[in-house]
Amino acid sequence: MSAPDNAELLAVAVAAARAAAPELVERFARGAVNVTSKSTDTDLVSDADLAAERTIRALLERERPDDAIMGEEGDDTPGTTGLRWVVDPLDGTIDYLYGHPQWCVSVACEGRAGVVLDPIRDELFAVAVGQAPTLNGAPLPPASTVEELGSALVATGFGYAADVRAAQAAIVARVLPAVRDIRRAGSAALDLAWIAAGRLDAYYEHGVKPWDIAAGVLLCESAGLHVEPLAGGDGLPQGILAAPAGLADELLTLIGS
């Protein structure tokens, strides 16, 4: 069997994300149950997360049985093809549990293709590397080209552990006076999709996991944005920054990592 091209992998990612969406939307409407905590009391997982990941894994195992899978809620599955799927079945669980419509499904074939699906708004952000990113099949609106930090709408996110939040608060205290405003919406994958689509000017966050950003980073890179890992340190885990090239250095200086 010939190796799949990126467009073929994107089709699988789209199918996987869309397969998980109906149950997530239905549970969102009636309220998720069986909520438990993970790393801290504020890091929650629900039956909706688990059901969505099972649905995605089942489709991937059917369509791409020899590929590896990394999911937020399940064990890593090894593969033999050199391809790995990175899955966040429900990014923005806290928003989801509180009834805030800022959550999504993120599915990526690492380094090759990815989708961020917002079922509530019926928006599918998609990219196959080597092709232009799309929103619901149409060209993605252009990303920001802002070069003045004072004109930038900057998104970020916060961790679950109190000591990490304290370090993140110190960074926000430096960034907020220097930018147009800060947004903290609660879904890293959607933040990245929205900056790729020009709805935000920049995004940074410490403590993101591979499944949070795998699809979003591909979208941002394909949209021509500067994407750079954040090293962390001084109580902060590693992170990611995405911004227009003309804004990145100044924002990195403020963030300090």
Automatic annotation (TrEMBL):
Names of required cofactors: Mg(2+)
Protein name, as recorded: Inositol-1-monophosphatase
Catalytic activity: a myo-inositol phosphate + H2O = myo-inositol + phosphate
Binding site residues for Mg(2+) 1: E72, D88, D91, D212
Key words, A-Z: Hydrolase, Magnesium, Metal-binding
Family recorded in the similarity comment: Belongs to the inositol monophosphatase superfamily.
EC assignment: 3.1.3.25
GO molecular function, one term: metal ion binding
Residues holding Mg(2+) 2: L90
Coiled coil: none
GO biological process terms held by the UniProt record: inositol metabolic process; signal transduction
Enzyme class, spelled out: hydrolase
Pfam families attached to this UniProt entry: Inositol_P (PF00459)
